Amino acid sequence: MFARLPDKPDHDALEREVLERWEREETFRRLREQNAGGPRFSFVDGPVTANKSLAVHTAWGRTLKDVFQRYKALRGHHQRYQNGFDCQGLWIEVGVERELGLNSKREIEEFGLAEFARRCREKVIWSARELTAGSIRLGQWMDWGADYFTFSDTNIDYIWRFLRLMHDRGRVYLGHRSTEWCPRCGTSLSQHELSQSGVYQDRSDPSLTVRFPLVDRAGESLVIWTTTPWTLPANVAAAVHPDASYGRRENGDWVMAARYPDEAFAEALPGSELVGLRYTGPFDTLPPGAAVEHRVIGWDEVSVDEGTGIVHIAPGCGAEDFELSRVHDLPILTPVDESGRFYDDYGWLHGTSTGDAADQIVGDLAERGLLVHAGLYEHRYPHCWRCDTPLIFRISDDWFLAVDELRQPLLDANATVEWTPAYMGKRMDDWLRNMGDWNISRRRYYGLPLPFYPCGCGRLNVVGSKEELLARATAPVEDLPELRRPWVDEVRIRCDACGEEVERIAEVGDVWLDAGIVPFSTLGWQSPEYVPGGYATGAAEGLTRADLPDHAYWEAWFPADWVSEMREQIRLWFYSQLFMSVALTGRAPFTKVLGYEKMLDETGREMHGSWGNMIDAQDAFARMGADVMRWQYCAQPPDRNLLFGFGPAREIQRKLLTLWNSVGFLVQYGNVESFTPQYADLEGVGADLGPLDRWLVERVRRLVEEATDAYERWLTVDVIRAFESFVDDLSNWYIRCSRRRFWEGDETALRVLWHAVVQSLRVVSPVLPFLAEHLWQVLVREPCDDAPDSVFLAGWPGVAAPDAASLDAMADARRIVDLGRTARATAGVKLRQPLARLVVEGATPARDLVAIVRDELRVRDVELGHVEAELVVKPNLPVLGPKLGSELGTVRAALAAGEFEELGGGRFRAAGHELSADEVLVERSARDGWAIASSDGVTVALDTELDDGLEREARVYELIHQVNTMRKEAGLALTDRIALTIPAADADLLEHGEWIKAETLAVSLDASGDAPALEKA
RNA sequence: GGGCGAUUAGCUCAGUCGGUUAGAGCGCCGCUCUGAUAAGGCGGAGGCCCCUGGUUCGAGUCCAGGAUCGCCCA
Fold first, then answer.
1. Is the pLDDT confidence value at A101 over 70?
2. Which H helix or E strand runs over A154?
3. Could you say which residues 606-635 of protein chain A have a Cβ atom less than 7 A away from any atom in strand B?
């Protein structure tokens, strides 16, 4: 007996129950034990930033990770299941800063770095707990509690080792250049931080045209255009295109002539003739500008499509400008400090932010008659990825890793990686070809301390490990709870060149160093011994029982067989791992990648808390259920954005209801017959099968084949497609056509249905772990003595390849039934009206399937043969096109008009051309008394002629339907017997008395009433 | 500004090698079946296949130019 199922699943309740079961029965632990000797499947989890609770976005990736780990586990693979948290860097810091109400770096320092670090760590601990709870609720099986935390001393130690190695190879340098700078965060940003979505935003900025009076040509001026007024005080040069023509207006203003095609100029000169002219800078009224000799330089990159054709050059405020300063030996003015405020020597501007300075600068220029025009300009402008502040360009000293020597090895390594979707691999190539040196330093607090100790003697000391730091310390180190600011800053070492005491630079490292080292730090690369709990060091102490494995372990698990993250990670984690791995080992750290696109709301808009369209994960678990969420994620092709929401969820719930109802049907009729399934039936249901049974067995095999193939290609969307189509076949074909057998207690049908349902649950269990597990308990574990306790302990169904011929034969039969239904509908003949004959042409249903066709279409006979009908002949275009060329039109018109001659043997003549059988397509249209339908070369014809017998049978069907509806309304059980009275006017139906009694479970029947009536017997 | 991709029904999307009447799901309307089903089946309304040219017997599909949108890079 099976436990009864409710009418529909309560996903939330069912899932909680399954979670409790898994915990109680330690299912996951047992699975891992079961697979311990199996082949390794190495997955490395990209660390999730621990600054939030689980969001539906994060749940997408976590679902994919879980689906494939579960699939591999079902295939017997031994896996690590290590989850990871990213615990340092701006994400964490800025969030905490906000919560504490701090607004600048100065305020953080006043607050105190040790306390600030403590608050950051608390945030991480809170978030790790939240993310873990959410992930468990989602159904993700990981080795929770053995997570890696990137802020552990062990992880930092590994990065130090990497940086030391890079330094030994001469790849670490201090750069002095113009970089994108966030004035609020007070730090420069790296190229890959700029690549994150949301960085470039539309923005309205001032648009100014300004006069630079020429010294060498009195009364004349250069006119330049800028959108960043604050950079004008840093102007040192003006660039013209040497080959372009410049014109002087009557008032003495010089501009590029091509920019103003409608103007007449008093004088024209090529740009090259303007080069070298001196001019008065826009802010020579301030000391820094006054000290500079401003001149005109030539530059091929001057745009002929924008501005005035003369470009204002401020090497301290722009990357290209900075490069020009090297070529032309221009002075560099750096007008603003770390927080984007003017330095004191900028007089009345001092202390003003770049934004606030704009108005004052415009006013001042106007007063001095230098302003030609002021307006607004809409453009895409980069913003800080974390705090949304518009970025500025600023000269800064940053630490870089040189990439040029690694570029080709990186490309070679990426060529060994199999990317899904493939275009993401090309994106990586693109990036690898174009990326610049890696800016690894950030002027912040809660991050990896860079182990750089420069010495006045010129030597850069790079410390390669915590151990080395302690050994080289100039004083005993007493207080170093974590390798982190502020504690680590106190440790001074001796320069190994001159012996002077040196201290660490203040900068911390780019957060992607933390994540990139993971394939080494968590797997024990070069670790001499296996240290249980060895990962729980520094800030991670007490947070995890993760081990520090030894090098042999690393050899076994590196590289990862598979990693999966969102597309954005190409330039972030996928890149940083690849970079570090190629640097350390020359190899890619992963062999296969599954990437996926972005999540939007169900209408296609970005999800934002402030827009009210953000879906809370807890809400989603409660209202749609984790299985439905997982289905929604898995049904998504990874190369398109996912439109996630409750609307699509309802559609999925409906689909799952079909599966649920199929199981409910099995449970209901199985229980009526006291059916007991045999676990061995999963291997094969044996002989004695009817045609539908044999088909369903093959259909299951096809499902297993298709799903296996889809999992192996990392395409969950194809798993879902295969499963959906299977459930449709199961419910709307097998069960529908076999209902009578179930009423009659046909045990074979029950066994085959059980086999099919259970096999399909096994196949879909990685996607729908809760529903599959719940139904496994009901259908398998409880009734079968020898069954595994969990669907996840049962392994992968081992079945033979499907028999295509058998599947095709049923497909033919179904096509005939579909056409028959179409024909009935066209002729307006209800299914309750039996018909005498169906004639089929163009397909030969297998003999054992003819009965199915007959029952489904309710016809007495199915004949295979010629359909008597009018001919419709069409040209077979792919064949005739190349043969006839321009004559095709004529032939086609003749055929369409019916102007053709039948030559026998399927040949025709039209418009003077003889057409062979394969050059035409022949279809048929209806005659009187017949209903015809045809498609794909199959034609069916229904004889719609009725006689008394057929009409009487129709009335019997009608009566049976009516009585059974009454039974239902009267609340009778499926097995209750009745005494049935039918109207006297229907006395002629008593001819079919036994049939009526059998169909309505009537023990007596008489025709004496006015209307049908029944009574429980 | 450069690169990549897209544009097909109200919405989300398929559309194979160029081929006959351009499809699916959802939504809408009508009909229908039902002894598991809240399901299923049948039909209908709804299309400038972004535009303009070209190649071809034939273009949603291939080519060129343009428009719009998205992504990536600057």
1. yes
2. helix A153-168
3. none
Q: What's the CA gap between A533 and A214, in Å, rounded? A: 72
Q: Looking at domain A1-33+600-799, what is its CATH homologous superfamily?
A: Isoleucyl-tRNA Synthetase; Domain 1 (1.10.730.10)
Predicted complex ipTM: 0.86
Instruction: Give the closest residue to B39 (Cα–C1′).
Output: A658
Query: What 8-state DSSP symbol labels residue A730?
Result: I
Under CATH, which architecture does the A200-382 domain have? Alpha-Beta Complex (3.90)
Q: For chain A, how are helix, strand and coil distributed in percent, rounded to 5?
A: 45, 20, 35
The per-residue pLDDT for A655 is 86
- The whole-angstrom separation of Cα A691 and Cα A741 is 13
The stretch A154-168 carries a mean pLDDT of 97
Kindly report the bases of strand B lying within 7 A of a protein C-beta atom.
1, 4, 11-14, 19-21, 25-26, 31-43, 56-58, 71-74
Per-residue confidence (pLDDT) for residue A11, from 0 to 100? 92
Phi, psi torsion values for A861, nearest 5 degrees: -130, 145
Task: Show me where the domains of chain A are located.
Answer: 1-33+600-799, 200-382, 810-943, 948-1016
Is the pLDDT assigned to residue A822 strictly greater than 80? no
For residue A282, give the 3-state DSSP assignment.
coil
Where on the phi/psi map is residue A403: left (φ > 0), alpha (ψ -120 to 50), or beta? alpha
- Per DSSP, the residues of A518-556 read HHHHTTTTT-SS-BTTTT--BTTTTT----B--HHHHHH
Residue A988 CB neighbours (<10 A): 11
**For residue A227, what pLDDT is reported?**
85
Q: What is the pLDDT of residues A102-154, one digit of tens each?
A: 888 889 999 999 999 999 999 999 999 999 999 999 999 999 999 999 999 99
